[in-house]
Design goal:
Blueprint (H helix, E strand, L loop, with lengths): L6 E4 L4 E6 L6 H8 L8 E17 L3 E4 L5 E2 L3 E22 L3 H7 L3 E5 L4 E2 L1 E4 L3 E6 L14 E4 H14 L1 H9 L9 E2 L2 E2 L1
Parallel strand pairs: 1-9, 2-10, 6-11, 11-12
Antiparallel strand pairs: 2-6, 3-6, 3-8, 4-5, 4-13, 7-10
């Protein structure tokens, strides 16, 4: 009988783990928020009991798009990936980041709250500190489908998530698709700075 190999990530005293499942699948997005190159290993892993959905509402402060009828529309919110309890194996990647960088990630994930998930990780054991997952919080969680005037998804964001999945390979893509709701294409727009 084969033994499943579990990876180990040892955190330094000034580090925490960060579980990325959306735009943070893409290494360049993590590095942009960190403000420098990421030099540690990142590990593909999963957490049971969570599912991705397009439900995180962010009040729109800067984007607009041109509707099919030619009107310039400034949506009330932008819509991003979130996680909800569900009967899935949510795949993602875990990074070791400086604890001092958490305020920058909290700002990046401003409508989310950090949830500690280290004990629930599968495929990697993180030692020496907590591992955080960002979960959207009410009132910034979409409860029912709406049109893009209320909540638009930037095509560039979808492409960023796709690029992150592409960095991680076909097996990762299959796990992503099995643990994610599909993109509500009616909400996807070519957003521009308003």
């Amino acid at each position: 009988m084969a033994t499943r190999v579990i990876e180990t990530m040892d955190l330094a005293a000034d580090e925490v783990g960060l579980f990325g499942y959306g735009s943070l699948l893409r290494l360049a997005n993590l590095e942009r928020t960190l403000g420098h190159r990421y030099r540690r290993d990142r590990f593909v892993c999963s957490i049971s009991g969570w599912r991705r959905a397009w439900s995180s509402l962010h009040p729109n402060r800067r984007y607009s798009y041109v509707a099919a009828d030619g009107r310039r529309v400034v949506p009330a919110n932008m819509l991003y990936l979130n996680v909800h309890p569900g009967a899935c194996q949510l795949n993602g990647v875990v990074y070791a980041i400086p604890a001092a960088a958490l305020p920058a990630f909290d700002l990046y994930e401003e409508t989310y709250a950090r949830v500690e998930v280290g004990e629930r990780l599968q495929g990697v054991q993180v030692r020496g500190g907590p591992v955080y997952l960002y979960v959207g919080q009410p009132p910034h969680v979409l409860e029912a489908p709406v049109g893009p005037e209320v909540a638009a998804i930037r095509r560039a964001y979808v492409e960023t998530v796709e690029a992150g999945i592409g960095e991680l390979g076909e097996e990762f893509r299959r796990g992503y698709e099995a643990s994610s709701d599909g993109v509500p294409v009616v909400n996807v727009v070519d957003a521009e700075w308003a």
